[in-house]
């Protein structure tokens, strides 16, 4: 009340003339710092008036009361939080459950990155670094630094073609296992695998990615292909799909197939096309030994085996890329096909004796011939003839059986089961063997002439590839024990004798100076493929450190010189120096949190702040204690593509005075 009295008296004439006067209660004036923005009357506020406070600078945050009002008693309500003031954006070290902040930093500036660590068996909840950030009127760590228990996760329900066991769990601890099974047309790990057991690792990752993928085949890029059937718009085929194709001239489809089939191993057949200019020499029965002589291929079986149909050797001819006449090998205790019986015929059959099936040949002789026996039995891999085939259906002429074997030789005469009297066969030695004795023998009255043939290994004409010897080689072939005298060109007075020993030249004196491969220290390793303890002039040795955290000092590559010495001393390995915390980048920062030390060859990635672009980079590498790598962050206004942007001024919908610049 403004008046001195708060009552009136009732007089005879009526109420007295003193009228009480009331007015609104007023609150005291509020003084605030200059950097605080005041919205409302803080100096002459009356009951019910509200005053709000905010910071004038965007780089500050409000502390204390943000809003107060004047109550009926003339007191300000809302000042319990303290008088309003503005402070620079600061963040305090947070309390992190299952984690901690190393060091003793008490506060952080705006845009500082928080370096924190998680306790064992926990990991960061997010990969992004936590940055001190102003959000409205307070400072916060964005994103919130959190540690979560390390778990491996599965997507439920599983993707198509994938099933899990156990089937209804999605989170697993390190060491726990899950069996992943793929449907018929899917694979995991390798295209031939449909089921694997994957283990949750300590870093929260699966040892095998638990997702099945469908078996597919893309269009092959084989050069011999001439035409490939198109399947628009997608040329990727699935398991079991087939495609018609053709091969270029000079090639043919493998195994005479008509279409290619998509399998778990890719397209079959593999290869799709093969050359028809020659025949392969590596696709025979592993029990078959073969060697080429001209356009013929001669073969025989390994010890313990024999050809299915004839003899102990044979020959084949290459026809359209396929060897014609190559036989399979069978075990020696098994009998071959029924032999051809002169002047008669044998029919293959079997009989049951003592509870076992026994192979038999039943004999039928031609007219004018009589059979000495009616059947032939298979015993220990041979047909039990009890004589020769000629004796079964009697003939008056004496024939010879198969010619005898000669080691390292084949017979070049056409194969025959029986050789009449007077027939001859000729032997041919393998490559690098020469024949000794008469190469031809003759059948006389059912017997072969006494055999006196040998195939002897010889040495080819001596060749000096390094051009360090003087000698005279008069022949193209030298036999074991023959000698050639030579003199070293670069070692005056040195004379040696090269002796032919079982197909190779033995030279006790080497004319060419060689470098001995040195013994390496434990920390050093040789990366060159070394097959001998000596190396020739011009050859190189390359070294590397076994420990990736070590660096090599000296020349990592040495050359063998003409004098038999290495071009430089052996290099050494020493531990590389560690690097300190990476340097700061103006208008930028590291993509992840930083540490106090880094090992040799470790990298740190940088990113620029918003509205800044990077030149160079983005990595710095620790190299023997120094950070190597150059980059800088420049305002995007300096980049050519920004200079071409056009901006317009957009007025606020609420006021006519405020506005923003927006690109158009």
From TrEMBL:
Disulfide bonds: 27-70, 335-378, 400-443, 579-622
Record field: transmembrane: none
Domain Sushi: 25-88, 89-149, 150-214, 215-275, 333-395, 398-457, 513-575, 577-635
Keyword Protein biosynthesis: no
Keywords, ordered alphabetically: Disulfide bond, Glycoprotein, Repeat, Sushi
InterPro entries registered for this protein in UniProt: Compl-Cell_Adhes-Reg (IPR050350), Sushi/SCR/CCP_sf (IPR035976), Sushi_SCR_CCP_dom (IPR000436)
CDD domains: CCP
Protein's UniProt name: Sushi domain-containing protein
């Amino acid at each position: 009340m403004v008046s001195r009295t708060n009552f009136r008296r009732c007089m005879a004439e009526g109420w007295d003339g003193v009228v009480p006067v009331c007015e609104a209660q007023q609150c005291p004036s509020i003084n605030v710092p200059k950097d605080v923005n005041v919205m409302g009357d803080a100096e002459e506020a009356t009951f019910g008036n509200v005053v709000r406070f905010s910071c004038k600078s965007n780089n500050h945050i409000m502390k204390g009361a943000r809003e107060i009002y004047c109550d009926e008693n003339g007191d300000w309500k809302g000042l319990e939080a303290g008088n309003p003031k503005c402070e620079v954006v600061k963040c305090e070290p947070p309390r992190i459950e299952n984690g901690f902040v190393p060091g003793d930093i008490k506060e952080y500036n705006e845009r500082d990155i928080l370096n924190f660590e998680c306790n064992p068996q926990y990991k960061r909840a997010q990969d992004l670094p936590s940055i001190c950030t102003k959000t409205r009127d307070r400072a916060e760590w964005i994103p919130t630094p959190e540690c979560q228990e390390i778990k491996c996760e599965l997507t439920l329900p599983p993707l198509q073609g994938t099933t899990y066991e156990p089937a209804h769990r999605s989170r697993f601890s390190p060491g726990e296992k899950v069996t992943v099974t793929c449907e018929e047309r899917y694979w995991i790990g390798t295209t031939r695998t449909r089921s694997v057991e994957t283990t949750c690792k300590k870093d929260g990752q699966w040892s095998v990615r638990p997702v099945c993928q469908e078996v597919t085949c893309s269009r092959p890029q084989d050069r011999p292909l001439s035409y490939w059937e198109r399947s628009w718009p997608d040329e990727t085929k699935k398991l079991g799909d087939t495609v018609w194709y053709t091969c270029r001239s000079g090639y043919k489809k493998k195994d005479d197939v008509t279409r290619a089939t998509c399998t778990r191993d890719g397209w079959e057949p593999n290869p799709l096309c093969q050359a028809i200019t020659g025949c392969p020499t590596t696709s025979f029965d592993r029990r078959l030994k073969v060697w080429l002589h001209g356009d013929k291929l001669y073969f025989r079986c390994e010890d313990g085996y024999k050809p299915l149909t004839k003899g102990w050797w044979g020959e084949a001819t290459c026809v359209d890329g396929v060897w014609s006449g190559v036989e399979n090998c069978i075990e020696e205790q098994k009998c071959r096909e029924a032999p051809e019986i002169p002047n008669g015929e044998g029919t293959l059959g079997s009989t049951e004796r003592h509870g076992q099936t026994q192979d038999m040949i039943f004999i039928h002789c031609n007219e004018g011939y009589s059979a000495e026996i009616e059947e032939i039995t298979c015993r220990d891999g041979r047909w039990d003839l009890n004589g020769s085939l000629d004796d079964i259906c009697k003939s008056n002429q004496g024939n010879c059986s198969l010619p005898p074997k000669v080691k390292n030789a084949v017979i070049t005469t056409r194969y025959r089961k029986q050789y009449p009297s007077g027939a001859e066969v000729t032997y041919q030695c393998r490559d690098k063997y020469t024949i000794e004795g008469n190469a031809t023998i003759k059948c006389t009255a059912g017997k072969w002439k006494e055999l006196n043939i040998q195939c002897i290994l010889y040495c080819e004409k001596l060749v000096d590839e390094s051009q360090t010897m003087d000698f005279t080689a008069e022949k193209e072939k030298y036999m074991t024990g023959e000698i050639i005298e030579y003199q070293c060109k670069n070692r005056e007075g040195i004379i040696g004798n090269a002796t032919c020993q079982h197909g190779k030249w033995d030279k006790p004196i080497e004319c060419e100076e060689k470098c001995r491969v040195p013994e390496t220290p434990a920390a050093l390793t040789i990366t060159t493929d070394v097959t001998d303890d000596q190396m020739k002039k011009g050859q190189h040795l390359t070294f590397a450190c076994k420990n990736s955290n070590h660096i090599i000092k000296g020349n990592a590559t040495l050359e063998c010189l003409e004098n038999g010495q290495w071009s430089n001393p052996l290099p050494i390995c020493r531990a590389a120096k560690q690097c300190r915390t990476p340097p700061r980048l103006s208008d930028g920062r590291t993509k992840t949190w930083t540490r106090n030390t880094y090992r040799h060859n470790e990298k740190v990635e940088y990113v620029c702040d918003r509205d800044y672009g990077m030149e160079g980079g983005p990595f710095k590498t620790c190299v023997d204690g120094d950070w190597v790598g150059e980059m800088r962050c420049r305002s995007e206004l300096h980049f050519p593509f920004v200079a071409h942007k056009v901006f317009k001024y957009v007025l606020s919908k609420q006021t006519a005075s405020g506005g923003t610049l927006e690109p158009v």
